[in-house]
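Re: the 221-residue chain
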Amino acid sequence: MKDTELMNIWKSYDDKLDQVLTLNKEIIHEMTKEKMNKNILRLRWPKTATILTGIPFTLLCYFITFVGVKAQAVFVTFGFGVISIVMSAMLISYMYHLYLINKISCTEKVMDVQKALAELKIASFHSTCIAIIQIPFWSICWVSYNALVQSPYLYGGINLIVFLAMSYFTYWLYQNLTIRNVEDSKVSQFFFSGPEWEPILKASSILEQLDGYEANSNRKA
């Protein structure tokens, strides 16, 4: 057998081997992408459930605010009014989360998925911050104006202390909330865990693998 024939045979084997390797990489890439999509789509149900339960609750808060206005109940109106606004902002935020989840599942480019996933992570963090705002105002909702007039020092003092304590607690939560190094903060671990957060972390980890596959493919190309 001539040298040229041997070279052609070796070249043919090399080409077939490259084709097999390329096909395997594509299969792994698609399987990894599918795995990431499954993780991120797990967020749909808890987000949707929160919206479905949040809408009637928010409407109830607006109704109580309306009743408070009619009854001239200053504290009820103010407390539930603020809570209603906060809940409305949360609902809008969660609807945006669903938009980002759908965007991630329909996007093919890793760079675009990374951007959308980062936006989802930040938006989820902001939603938690928005939710915390309402904490002090729950202490205002139940304050009676008549009782405050009759006992401004005892009744008013107790309610003021409760409001200030809840306000400080809210401020403390803000100071300890972070999406960076979640493991280092007990507060962050409490809020950023469970079905609304773990899929984001798993999807981020899988996305790093996808990025690595594409980087290796681009180098060889």
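The mean pLDDT is 77.
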